[in-house]
């Protein structure tokens, strides 16, 4: 769109910049976003509350903590609207800063700032990702006192709070006899996190009836069977999926370098600089293995792989590891890598990336389907709760 504006007689205004900036944030495109912000500042459009909030979202989504804090402080000092509060809370939620989100929420309520329905979804989400179950229950039970009409998204995120914490009975009670697929899917994701076969099998029956073409129950249940070492059952479920003509969603990771976006698909060798990347990956593996990393083959999801060697090799080909190796090929001395993944990062990649951050002295941020993981010096900001 930016390129389109430059060849057409269109002068971009606040709304244009707003849309473009949010696009750069969602596509995790820091280079293009920074250029836009420079233009916004040159045109002195950065005093608008909407633009400030969009800049906050951009910096938060591209993990520029310093700038995020600067803008956040500026917004909070100027009597912001609920829209800005929600952007700040969402930034905390995205980075697993549940306590900060809760403190801000409490101060809003104390200062008579009226939250809206989105505020509740966002705060519950922040608490869910930080494992703050008690606090989430408290807020969920006061929705109506806060003069907010309870919505389906509030219920979904509360199911997520329970499921993520392994409180399956509470989650099931809340869902009751609902036929809303999203509620059951959320609970199923919790089963995968805790590898709870019993409940996953039950939900599989429910979900495949409600949404027969959805691949997620097949994949999640088959992955749980694999984790428990039951290859036969895992193969059965995958076979059933093929029979129904349901396609698996591949793991895709995107990374940006100097304004160019690269795409990596798990298991595929179709990416630029294959040989160089493969050599770099081996070099990185040697380093992290030397530091104590061991491949956790319980996270292999392909039931056809039998030998330990094949399983380890398949873990090496997860898109996150390839994208990181590729980033080092492009810039060997880099200090930061930013990745976006369409699926939940697997535990083996999570562990490997923590080691890589320390051994290669690099900050790695992975935005997966659930949240942001900020790896630094061998540790992740999620404290292994995701
Ligand atoms: Zn992985
Ligand atoms: Zn993490």
TrEMBL record:
Residues 292-386 form the DYW domain. Keywords: Repeat. InterPro entries: DYW_dom, E_motif, PPR_At4g14850-like_plant, PPR_rpt, TPR-like_helical_dom_sf. PPR repeats lie at residues 81-115, 116-150. Gene3D superfamilies: Tetratricopeptide repeat domain. PROSITE patterns: PPR (PS51375), PROKAR_LIPOPROTEIN (PS51257). Pfam families: DYW_deaminase, E_motif, PPR, PPR_2. GO terms for biological process: RNA modification; system development. It comes from the Eukaryota. SUPFAM superfamilies: TPR-like (SSF48452). Signal peptide: none annotated. GO terms for molecular function: RNA binding; zinc ion binding. Coiled coil: none annotated. This is Predicted protein. It comes from Naegleria gruberi.
